[in-house]
Amino acid sequence: MRTTPGSPRAWLRTHPLVGDSVLALVLAVASVAMAMISGGRSPGAPPHGVDVLGGGLIVAACLLVAFRRRWPFVLLCAAEVPQLALTAMRYESGLTGLVSLVLLYTVAAYRGLALSLVAAAVLSASYAAGTTLASESGDWAQHTIILVVSLAVWVVGRSVRLRRAYTAELVDRAERLERAREADTRAARAEERSRIARELHDVVAHHVSVMTVQAAAARKVLETRPEAARDALTAIEEMGRTAMREMRGIVGVLRTDGESGELAPQPGMGDLPVLVDQMREAGLRAQLWIEGERPALPPGIDLAAYRLVQEALTNSLRHAGPSARAWVTVRHERDELLVHVEDDGRGGTGEFTRGPGDRPGHGLVGIRERVALYGGVLRIGPRQGGGFEVRARFPLKD
After folding, report:
1. Is the pTM of this model over 0.85?
2. pLDDT of 3-40, one tens digit each?
3. Exposed (0-12), middle (13-18) or buried (19+): which is 104, by Cβ within 10 Å?
4. EC number(s) for this protein (predicted)?
5. Which domain CATH number covers 361?
6. Residue 289 has what pLDDT?
7. What is the domain range of residue 43?
């Protein structure tokens, strides 16, 4: 049963001593009243009803219930002493038998199995001792009823303890799962941020490099060849719009409210002719060869191979020199995809091969991560005969 926060039941759960004290007081008053009413009047009743000594023993036994949650087993043993004294002096005991049942339930509900069994044995021994002191064999049906009631109280207490332990285990498991889910979420967010950073770097580095080259060309021919300058400025405008469109698609995933954003649409190997045309317009004499029948590539490999070509051509445009040429060769085989980008420029100063004074960029790291992610093999370095090359193999099998 669920307890509403702020309700009297919830308050009593947080202040158990108050509820137990009220229970002890009720038992004491009811026991004294019953002893005064029935003492010596009913057949077979003890000869003494209640006096100061008998009332004191009854109250002492009942008030122990107020501290039942702290020392239940000790109080159970202590409660049997005044009850045995009442029986030995032939006093009416009232409802003190309920005190033993309440303490037996508390031991079974709040302590381990071994101690609860000892408590049941102590209660049985006390009852047997009381029967002996009263010098009455009693009715066997009465003894059986008391035994069954005591056993039922013990079983209920154990059931409550097991249920409480099961609930605590469920709560602990839920907390562990919640912590694991939060850790997975943080890891996924970190991975997503890293992926977005790589995508943004690839987009910005490529388009800004092309726009820079186009702007430099427009500045040189602005006075002598206005038409060529106008074409260069038009290309810069188109390149800027393309860059903004791609960046909106990438950063859009960060602005989704509770929905899973997708980095779509993403370029692939089918967009290589457009990429090569853009590089030609920027001044790099680039050529593209595609060998073999182009299969349907996995989306991750498709994007990774495209970004590799884009980064390599951008590097050639920026660092190979004004008269450099670049070649892109894509070979589709049954089990793997081969991508080879090379140029005949001076090279050696870009992100791929940095000199001592160059600051490390993200291009080399991003390409190595992309290729390694799909189990590929990457080679980056000087080209035989001059220039620079990037060669990658992507396996197409699991």
Report:
1. no
2. 555 566 666 677 778 888 888 898 888 888 887 776 54
3. buried
4. 2.7.13.3
5. 3.30.565.10
6. 93
7. 8-138
